[in-house]
């Protein structure tokens, strides 16, 4: 666990977009999204795939990230 990363998550305002790297079996994984809840032992991040609950003890890195890019304009079909 990175104490600094866990402290960052614990002190970050809810609604902030963050990336959190956590230890999993066989390596690490990242959760990118909006911080929705923080407890003494964990945090909840709202990702594109839904809510993810992470243990503070498993966090190895975390930081604030900018908003996602705007959606691309749709491609127009080529005229014949």
Automatic annotation (TrEMBL):
It comes from the Bacteria. Residues 13-63 form the Histone acetyltransferase Rv0428c-like SH3 domain. This is Ferrous iron transport protein A. It comes from Cryobacterium cheniae. The lineage of its organism: Bacteria, Bacillati, Actinomycetota, Actinomycetes, Micrococcales.
